[in-house]
Amino acid sequence: MKQTILTFIFVVLILSVGCSSTCPPCVPTHEVVEVITPVYQCPEPPDVPVLTLPPWPVLPELATDEQFKQWYFEMLQTAKVRMFLLNDRVETLDLILGAYRETE
Fold it and tell me: Could you tell me how far CA 103 lies from the centroid of its own chain?
């Protein structure tokens, strides 16, 4: 057992001395890299009106079949109007952003 431990220590010592002698010395170097960042003079974005969406219709608690059908119809109409308003808003913002992307 004692020989195994001594052999292990001897092998580790030989490996550490052998590996450290073959490595080149570590010399830190400093390298300056110039990064040119374009700077644009952009005008202020135009004022965009506040987005107001129509409210969702409310279904009465004890709704009849006719009230449920009317509510469902109003929900579909409201969803279409809201989707149209949101798509229109995205297109407007995309146009504003596109004006900044154009190069002079």
Answer: 26
